[in-house]
Specification:
Largest sheet: 5 strands, antiparallel
Strand content: 15-25%
Shape: globular
CATH superfamily: DD-peptidase/beta-lactamase superfamily
Helix content: 25-40%
Number of helices: 8
CATH class: Alpha Beta
Strand order of the largest sheet: 2-1-8-7-6
Distance between the termini: 80 Å
CATH topology: Beta-lactamase
Order of helices and strands: HEEEHHHHEEHHEEEH
Radius of gyration: 21 Å
Number of domains: 1
Structural class: alpha+beta
Length: 269
């Protein structure tokens, strides 16, 4: 009498998103975790993840909501200075090189104010909008300086895409290196992608009208494949720099399948 063959286990259904953003089937659980965190965070962050390899883009949260740019706009100030001097046929003045380094490493406000005045002040908004693609950028504050700007996450995404896709090899190499080697004060947000993803970041944080707004923009992955922008204006009474920065760090970590809470260095501004 023959022994019956065991019944084979059913074959699991194929992944419905095998190549979405290059993350394979893991993306389904990552996406769910991202959206759960956004839904539970007071005020709800807004996130855009752009895949430069495929052009695919994932959005979560209220991405049409304008928020303060904070210090993220310092990346645009660095870019406009470099391109202005090149158009003049000149090397970067040493004072400008020093201010770019200060802005990108430790997010120095005084350096940004000098650059804003040196390269045109509010006239720079036309360049930021038309050349860098920051179409939603608005001078929303009354003092008319670089710290009074608002935008949506798509504007920050466009800024980094301009850096990565439309600048000279030298400019791209110099600024991506600066963003990968930021000082401790900016090791949060997109930094949460983890060292294996070689992230570069420009963070922003602003306390105004009694509440905190935080933002982060940057890139991660081989050949800077992924551009991430997250903006988070927190409601009064449910806000802090620590909460905001950790939330942005954790959202980035979830994109790349890392554990949360992700390591972040958050220092008082």
């Amino acid at each position: 009498m023959s022994t019956p063959s065991p019944t084979p286990s059913p074959t699991p259904p194929p992944c419905q998103e095998p190549s979405y953003l290059g993350f394979g089937c893991d993306w389904v659980s990552r996406k769910a975790a991202i959206e759960t965190l956004i839904a539970s965070a007071p005020g709800h962050p807004a996130l855009i993840l752009h895949d430069r390899l495929t052009g695919t883009e994932y959005q979560a949260g209220p991405t049409d909501r304008a928020s303060w740019t904070g210090s993220t706009i310092k990346l645009a100030l660095a870019l406009v200075a470099i391109e202005t001097e090149r158009e003049r046929g000149q090397q970067l003045p040493s004072r400008t090189s020093e201010d770019i380094a200060l802005m990108l490493s430790v997010s120095d406000d005084a350096a940004a104010s000098r650059m804003w005045s040196r390269y045109g002040g509010t006239r720079l908004l036309t360049i930021f909008r038309e050349r860098f693609g920051m179409a939603g950028l608005v001078m929303a504050g009354s003092n008319g300086d670089w710290g009074a700007l608002t935008c949506v996450p798509a504007d920050l995404t466009a800024l980094v895409l301009y850096l990565l896709d439309h600048t000279s090899p030298e400019t791209r190499a110099n600024l991506t290196h600066a963003m990968r080697t930021v000082g401790d004060i900016q090791r949060w947000g997109v930094w949460g992608a983890g060292p294996n993803m070689r992230p570069g970041v420009k963070d922003g944080w602003l306390h105004t009208a009694g509440t905190w707004t935080v933002a982060t923009v940057g890139f991660a992955g081989p050949d800077e494949r992924y551009v991430i922008s997250i903006m988070y204006p927190m409601p009064a009474g449910q806000d802090s720099l620590t909460l905001g920065a950790q939330t942005l760090t954790d959202l980035t970590a979830l994109i790349f399948g890392r554990a949360t809470p992700a390591p972040a260095i958050i220092r008082p501004s």
